[in-house]
Amino acid sequence: MSTHLRNPDRHLRHLNRPLAAGLGLLGLLLGLVSTAPSASAAPLAADGPGVGTPWVVTLGDSYISGEAGRWAGASNDDYRRADALGPNAYHDNADGTGETIARCHRASTAEAHIGGGVNGLNLACSGARTATAAGTNFKPGIDFFNSSAGKGQALMLQEAAASRNVRMVVVSIGGNDFEFASAVQTCVVNFLTSPSWWKNYCHDDSSVAENFTAANVAAIRSRVAGALGNVATAMSNAGYSTSQWTLVVQTYPSPMPSGSGFRYSESGYTRQSVGGCGVWNQDADWANATALPTINGALLGAASDVGLSNVRTLDMTHAFDGKRLCEKGVGLYEELGLPSWQSPGAADRTEWVNQVRTVTTIGDSPYFVQESLHPSYWGQLAMRNCLRQVWNGGAPRSGSCTVGNLGTARLTPSGEPSMVLGPLAKG
């Protein structure tokens, strides 16, 4: 998902602060070297289906691409306190000089790169929907689109899998089909343009509610099922049997607490001007109780509808609970008295979700509006820790992910928050 907000009035927060490794390595064709020609010296098999180093490939939108992965927590005083990856955070082309597709924001912290002898390929793109959008800003969907503008993610997967041993494909898609960015914009604008004694909620606005009607939910569920079917077709076209790979359907995490969990009051504009989380309590309650379960339910329903035997589920619904944007128990660096993201305890005491920014990036500001309300540096690494547990040494399993040691979250030796993959939640 990707968020683009505009400035509705003078109360919108105005930020005026100074604004990975290449992933697409082709499998090497290995030949038997001999000192003399020999008719019996057949070439060794190239990496491909079932052969070679295992790969994990991620597909979908901003919640799996690495959007906001540059920022480890937040500071309104000095952005450098939270700048973990620097200005090249989203450079993913072969030589690390730019983006393969503009504004896909594939950060080096993205969960695809689980390591441990497993290679990662991140084909997801911030702003992507189930179907490719080939307009001014090219956004590859999970389809076989192919033109001078670019290729769809299913086609990219098919081409990559032919020369790699792709063992697991992870998909997170559908949020933008539910118009996530538009809903966030409406909620923030309604918060900033109505007083606390006459609140204008967003969840009952027609522009938001129409995305959650039974008919629209069914339509999006069907589109997601079609996208998952495209993944299966791509793998089959690349030469894979169902037993050679696993499809993991990943749900979305809750980025904000429910109303009672905010550390900033509804009164005044502090909730947005300081916290970057300007929504009314009732809208936050609706988001967690209705919107998120509806979106995730459509994904899980689609996973069932596609009818594949090799499907697993990674439930991220509660992965950030206790570390969400503006949640009690975490804070900004200046609120906590921490110098920077490298300070001991920063991962435990700062937020894992990026602030909502409501003005277009201007001047030398380092922030992108589309980074709003996405898993930031710690959140991305937490999701990677979850996915490594799903990988399970090459025998993928389903599960629900939550923070380990909540309140005293610890980092693993590789610098990731230690997460717990438990049984899938019921209901």
From TrEMBL:
Does the record's keyword annotation contain Zinc-finger?
no
The organism's place on the tree of life at top rank: Bacteria
**What keywords are assigned to this protein?**
Signal
Report the InterPro entries cross-referenced here.
SEST-like (IPR037460), SGNH_hydro_sf (IPR036514)
Q: Which residues form a coiled coil?
A: none
Q: Which PANTHER family match?
A: LIPASE 2, SGNH HYDROLASE-TYPE ESTERASE DOMAIN-CONTAINING PROTEIN
User: What is this protein's record name?
Assistant: GDSL-like lipase/acylhydrolase family protein
